[in-house]
Write a structure and sequence with these properties.
InterPro entries: BUG, Bug_dom1. The chain is α/β, with parallel strands linked by helices. It is built from 12 helices and 10 strands.
């Protein structure tokens, strides 16, 4: 009787056997959203199931992150994770409804969004080292622009300040457009910005690029040295986007998703498509390497946040 019952039980369906959802914590149209849509389209092919993008912006990615953290951990809900949601927010915000380390498993770091150190054209400095010398000669007299307190761009500038020893005052703005306008008007003299928004202004000669914050030079600005090359070895700062699932997602489903994402990341046209946006598609990492990457990111930014006593409500 038992043998018959076992024989009659239906076979377990292969994963995935229905559509998946990729929750994106940003509004449609930006670089992160574009990445998520192409990624979803390619994953649909790899997994032979639709992967539907659901935009859920708000509260600096925390609304979407909370939703995914509380979703069924069955492999059918994915999250476009970033260093904002997985690293910075848990350290910055006093009230947060999820625990990034406990509630999520980051499966893959898909892309880094490099940062560029840009300056007003009137500052008598053609290199980062020269800017640091100018700033040190006038401590507290120069200003740097950012897009808000606790934003990755502000934290990257504070990290740069600590590594170079320069004293420049922080002027926060509500968005990259007013911040860059202040830089062009010489109300501020320095900004660390995402490459995608500053690149057109650099190309038009409206601001100048002093250095990039990546480990290597960028193809879109091949003549601009890295911060490390500019006399500050070991410096690296970037925002990143990846794919995460709820922590309790079974290992088999998580592994199938990680492998599918890795196959997409290896596609040459996928890598090339985002180069113009300044997104650097990463080489696939295994789970241990991904966890190490995220942990190093937490350590790097945790030191900056603690040193500057940055807390957000």
């Amino acid at each position: 009787m038992c043998v018959c019952a076992a024989a009659a039980s239906p076979a377990v369906a292969a994963f995935p056997d229905r559509p998946l959802k990729l929750v994106v914590p940003y509004t449609p149209g930006g670089a992160a959203d574009q990445l998520s849509r192409v990624l979803a389209e390619r994953l649909s092919r790899e997994l032979a199931q639709p992967v539907v993008v659901e935009n859920k912006p708000g509260a600096n990615t925390m609304i979407a992150a909370t939703q995914v953290a509380r979703s069924q951990p069955d492999g059918y809900t994915l999250f476009l994770a970033s260093n904002a949601s997985m690293v910075l927010n848990p350290m910055l915000y006093q009230k947060i409804a999820y625990d990034a380390a406990r509630d999520f498993r980051v499966l893959s770091v898909v892309a880094e969004l490099p940062l560029v150190v840009v300056a007003n054209n009137q500052v008598p400095a053609a290199t980062l080292a020269q800017f640091v010398s100018v700033a040190k000669a006038r401590p507290g007299k120069l200003n740097y622009a950012s897009v808000g307190i606790g934003n990755p761009l502000q934290l990257a500038t504070e990290l740069l300040k600590s590594r170079t020893g320069m004293d420049v005052a922080h002027i926060p703005y509500n968005g990259s457009a007013p911040a860059l306008s202040s830089l062009m008007a010489n109300d501020t003299q320095l900004m660390v910005d995402v490459i995608s928004t500053s690149l057109p202004l650099v190309k038009e000669g409206k601001i100048k690029a002093l250095a990039v914050t990546t480990a290597e030079r960028l193809p879109v600005l091949p003549e601009v040295p890295t911060v490390a090359e500019s006399g500050f070895p070991g410096f690296r700062a970037a925002t990143w986007f990846g794919v995460a699932v709820p922590a309790e997602t079974p290992a088999a489903e998580a592994g199938a998703l990680r492998d599918a994402v890795a196959r997409v990341m290896r596609q040459p046209d996928f890598r090339e498509r985002f180069q113009a946006l300044g997104l650097v598609i990463q080489a696939p990492r295994d789970q241990a390497e991904t966890e190490r990457y995220v942990e190093e990111d937490r350590k790097r930014w945790g030191e900056v946040i603690r040193a500057n006593h940055i807390k957000l409500d």
